[in-house]
Amino acid sequence: MSVADIQAELRARMESLPPLPAYVEPLGVVLERGSEITLQPIEWLWHGWLPRGKLCLLAGQPGTGKTTLALAMAATVTIGGRFPDGSTCKPGNVLIWSGEDDIADTLLPRLVAAGADPERCYFVRSALVDSEIVPFDPARDLLELLSAIQSIKGIDLLIVDPVVSAVTGDSHKNTEVRRALQPLVDLAAVTNAAVLGISHFSKGGQGQDPTQRVIGSVAFAAVARVVMVAAKVKGEEGKDARIFARSKSNIGADDGGFEYFLEQTEARPGIEASRVAWGDPVQGSARELLTDPADEAEDAGSDAVEMLRAELTGQGWFSAKTATQPLKDAGFTKKQIWAASNKLNVSRKKGAMNEGWYWRMPGVESAFTWGNTEGSVEGSEGSTFRNLESSESSESSESSESSESSEPSKVPFHPEGSEGSINENVEPLESSAQPGDVEAI
């Protein structure tokens, strides 16, 4: 029998078999055929930000108003109000568990200040274990919580503050965190509610993706379908501002955000509370938008400052494009690089027409010519600087070529007018860069 005959016989036998059911259970493993699955769209409580039936995360440094932000969203849900992007939702119940704030003097006043309907606001007070009232433990009492949710005819939003309280084991171990968060994920799916966990940022981490700064195991951000972040930033006029941004989303856009402000008001006569006042929308990734004041307030030992100092070490002017490239490669944003240059009091000058900016450390004598010619004016069309390197620099260049090094070199420097200098006494233009003008990078 030929190969073709064997193949034909196999096809005939397979076609004669009865069709497989949608669910196949070989050795206890359940398989489901794709053709038997009905496609479902993502349901949103707040489109792009709070998906129904999913676990989300809101993280930030202490003092950024994370809980107040969460309560602002909760208040909007209770009245079917308007979110900062103009979208709306139907009125629904919200359930809040907080292990950090008191209900009567903090949480409810903030909700009332934000315009919430108290009739739709529910709080987890305690749990009943063996006929004894004990503090609620999310890691232990989620099944009982589901029964309580069903008794109030469902919820649209559940806030868990802090989300780490749902983890009984080591919050820095990936496996333990994933196992502990699974009940919350299941609760979201069963109730079709958006579950919002609140967390903190770890210290440091400037230049990193904000999602990677969520404290504890990376599993917190990995399990969450949407990660939102809040931070203080430096505004255009140098004043502190606040940004609420989307840092990660597995089910939609993962950028953009809104300015927000925290203001004090009277929730009731004699009852002071904070609330969120939404500002303008902002564009860009969370990494670009968030510049933590704690990061900006660090001394000259910060990574960005030290890296820039190393690139500008030496006498003369350095191409800003070349000097800042290693910092960009390390993940620092233009805003962070500009802040680092301000900390170092970097001097800036504009090259001739069609030439970029040049930087140098303060206190360097202006009688020295340009350094670090990689990407600089040397050899550019119309450049007023020609043949900058001396014989010594040529030897250095030959040595560099022989080692096949691709690192930019720093060339010798010659006082203008001295032998070996061909600067032609042309100085770069005085800087017109203003604070915050990152185009000078």
UniProtKB/TrEMBL annotation:
Low complexity composition bias: residue spans: 390-406
Entry-linked Pfam families: AAA_25 (PF13481)
Domain AAA+ ATPase: start-end pairs: 52-234
Biased composition (Polar residues): 372-388
Location of region: Disordered: 372-441
Entry protein name: DNA primase/helicase
